[in-house]
Amino acid sequence: MLDIAFVKPALPRSGALVLPLPEGGDGTLALAGLAQAIDAASGGAIARGLAAAGFKGRKGQSATLWAPALEGGAPGPARVVAIGLGKPGELTPEAAEAAGGAALPLVSAEREAVVAAEALAAPHAAAFALGLLLRSYRFDRYRTTVKEEEKPKLERVALASDAATAAKTAWAPMRAVAEGVFLSRDLVSEPPNILDPEEMAERCKVLEKLGVEVEILGPKEMRKLGMGALLGVAQGSVKEPRLVVMQWHGAGGGKGKKATTTPVAFIGKGVTFDTGGISIKPAGGMEDMKWDMAGAGAVVGLMAALAGRKAKVDAVGLVGLTENMPSGEAQRPGDVVRTMSGQTVEVINTDAEGRLVLADVIHYCQERFAPRFMVDLATLTGAIIVALGHEHAGLFSNDDTLAQQLAAAGKSVGEALWRMPMGEPYDKALKSDIADMKNVGGRPGGSITAAQFILRFVGKAGPAQAPIPWAHLDIAGTAWSSKDLPTVPKGATAFGVRLLDRLVADHYEG
Amino acid sequence: MLKVRLRPAPRGRGEPRLLPVAGAAGVPHALRAAAAAAGFTGAAGQCLDLPEDGAQGGPQGGAPGGSAARLVLVGTGAPRRSLDWERAGGAGLAAAGAVRHLALDARGLPPEAAAALAAGACLRAWRFEAARSEAARRGAPPAPEALDLLVDSPEATAPHWERAAAGVRGCLLARDLAAAPGNHLTTRAFAARLETLAEHGIAVDVLGRKRLAREGLGGLLAVGGGSANPPRLAVLRWRGSHAAPPVAFIGKGLCFDTGGLSLKPAAGMAAMRADMAGAAACAGAMLALALRRSPAPAVAVLPLAENAIGGAAYRPGDVLRMGSGRTVEVVDTDAEGRLVLADALHVARRFRPAAMLDLATLTGAIVTALGAHRAGLFGTDAALMAQAAAAGEAVGEPLWAMPIGARHREDLASDIADLRQCASGRLQPDACHAAAFLREFAGDCPWAHLDIAGVEVRAGADALGPKGPSGFGARLLDSLVAHYFEDPDRI
């Protein structure tokens, strides 16, 4: 992980100098601080170079000037990179973050970079650093032949600011969240022969170092609990399923061994590889199904983020881990399974396995923790990609308040959600001739009927026996990016980690 | 449509009488034991068929000579909205079964409720018989033809009924058009049918191939080019009485859609006779406005075409110059709806409308997204979208807002033309892509797009209609205009 530091302003003598610059009111750039200093030291070469490049400080603009000659032959940066911030006064933390992300590929060939962040308010400076850091993620574990010159060199980024202390304070929790994001991206990027349910459960144990209590349940415990749906999905694979329960007791200051409040709960679908089972998927694109555990990956990353920044909340994260394989032992279309809740399910399509896993994990979660709310994340349906594409994840909920909080949190971290409808007409599609329900409701409204299925396992709690507030995020279109985005390199996005961390920070701490 | 007569009392000719009942307490005393035994609680959707007994049913009940008349109790639950009364009326009509004449007893109810009950009955009673032979029609079991709406004051109810009936007739026109098979309702026949709306005071102008060519409507010409039935553009205008910019309706009118060279699979292709349901709904809405003499000016721009295969058909890879001057690369000839709509939006903008709404059975993707219970709502104007959604809820034609994101527009970048018509590959958000495409032709006019694929037909009968075309959109647009475009102060 990049080393990010906040320092007092001084011109670097090598490496990169990054100038985040706002748009000038009259079309001219106002250079201040280190930008002005290097411009002066180079005899105005910076202002001239930027003008020649047509750089006006607009959002999304960038320009690189190579090794400006400084007066007296003084050593200076090998490159000066200007990044447009848009109109001054309109800068938001999200925009600062995107600007930081855009800067990264322009400086990654240098070992060190200094960002002239004097003009940025402390939260914006920290957001710029976060964008840079998030964009720097790489998963190179299985590359053995990369040439030295092709590897990114950037090791250290120093943000030069007069308010370095304030920026550093803003930065500390952000770094913890970024670590959660990186952990999640690592898990999702891992190939399925390496990351099977057992291995993923083992990796959850790294959270213990952060003070998270980690429990792992295997098939024996699941059988005792009656998790027929989860076990049904798992039975075709030689790999055993796992259920990992992660508890963070932060409400009492992060030192307690027990929750002092009713916890909030996050549940993730963790199908470490999904062939579709007997209802096997087409071969083309099946390799993508290694990321069918991205919901679980997000929950693990979220727990790391919450614990890493010592969030003042009691939170539980549960992930149902299994592989979905065809074999002589595998579940068949037509099978009827009994879920832990007692409800029976006719399995029409073995490739609609995620909801079966979630059904048992959600039921277990509410039985054990009676949480304040439950949010589940799952790469659940192709239908949500057809519905929304890759910019929004689908948001389904039985609680308008929770839904609004989630949508707002998503908007502020660039993980957008779009609310989708639910209701009785959709639920009807799950009617089975033999069991309490079918596991699919047909192509029309496919992601909605999937959400209705899950909702059937959301129970009631409290003295009033009110339904537990629940939301389901269908992240099938957003868990993996086919192209580089400002703060997300191509590949695993860790969608959900930052969103849910923000949800907790904004509404459920203290 | 059912012949509805407003009467203060039943004729006593032995026709079944539908009696709305709000909860168990609303059941007439003499029938409580029977209702309780049958499990009838007066909840919405419940009906109970009983022999009418003159002694029990009240002074008007009973058939002369003791012939077996029927009383049908119709549960209304606790109706709050007009729609609840409509559903009760429809449920009652269905429960009455195979009879030609029936009475609906709305005495004691407010005139709005009486009108809504009758409207629901008319919607439920619609049938499409035009494609059956005379002999088959004669041999068929009887079906409802006339309804006596029993009300305390026919005079007080009449204006409410006329307003409600206008929307119903608009909806039923839309259903008639959508039900007609592709060989009956050709582009020419559709245009001729629209020309008959002139009798209601609607100005109808139909543009043929030459005019379309002169206007440069390359999208419509290309889509309609492969068919022996030439493309048409129908422009319907209702002047209203306000001197205000009109509200514009644009409806996709694909009289039949084979998919063109990007041919559809054979299974299910027959349903493509209803690929003009958007245009039909717009025509129905215009009829409703005219029938109730709406003060709001409105215009409907309806591109009519048949997407056929043949030597003159347009091809994937073709680049079209649209009416607006933009060029479009064709990726899939089965994404034709957006091409004809784009040209129609361009024409509609010439009327400088206050708002544009287009309706189209546009994408399979919207069915995957929302199923057959809600239509997709896209647009550029939050207020207009909220109004459309509210109007839809009011008439039982619900919408759900869907996004047009930056990525959706990016996906339409073309290597050769100004934009691509759609993206290719598996799992594409095609409904969003289509909306992003249309937005390029809506300009700065407040615009909403309703993707009604999936809701244009009922898979099975419900309270407001039999299995078959639903007329979705006609009543919605009528209600939208009534609520938001008829206030002269707003303009």
UniProtKB/TrEMBL annotation, chain A:
One GO biological process term: proteolysis
Enzyme Commission number(s): 3.4.11.1, 3.4.11.10
Residues annotated for Mn(2+) 2 binding in this entry: 269, 274, 292, 353
Keywords attached to this entry: Aminopeptidase, Cytoplasm, Hydrolase, Manganese, Metal-binding, Protease
GO molecular function: manganese ion binding; metalloaminopeptidase activity
The organism's place on the tree of life at top rank: Bacteria
Gene3D superfamilies to which the protein is assigned, alphabetical: Leucine Aminopeptidase, subunit E, domain 1 (3.40.220.10), Zn peptidases (3.40.630.10)
CDD domains linked: Peptidase_M17
Principal location class: cytoplasm
Positions contributing to Mn(2+) 1 binding: 274, 351, 353
Cofactor note: Binds 2 manganese ions per subunit.
InterPro entries: Leucine_aapep/pepB, Macro_dom-like, Peptidase_M17_C, Peptidase_M17_leu_NH2_pept, Peptidase_M17_N
Cofactors (names): Mn(2+)
The name this protein goes by in its record: Probable cytosol aminopeptidase
Organism the protein comes from: Roseicella frigidaeris
UniProtKB/TrEMBL annotation, chain B:
Pfam families, per the entry: Peptidase_M17, Peptidase_M17_N
Residues of the Cytosol aminopeptidase domain: 173-477
Protein name: Leucyl aminopeptidase
Family annotation (PANTHER family): CYTOSOL AMINOPEPTIDASE, LEUCINE AMINOPEPTIDASE-RELATED
Gene Ontology biological process terms, A to Z: proteolysis
Ranges for domain Peptidase M17 leucyl aminopeptidase N-terminal: 31-134
Gene3D superfamilies, alphabetized: Leucine Aminopeptidase, subunit E, domain 1, Zn peptidases
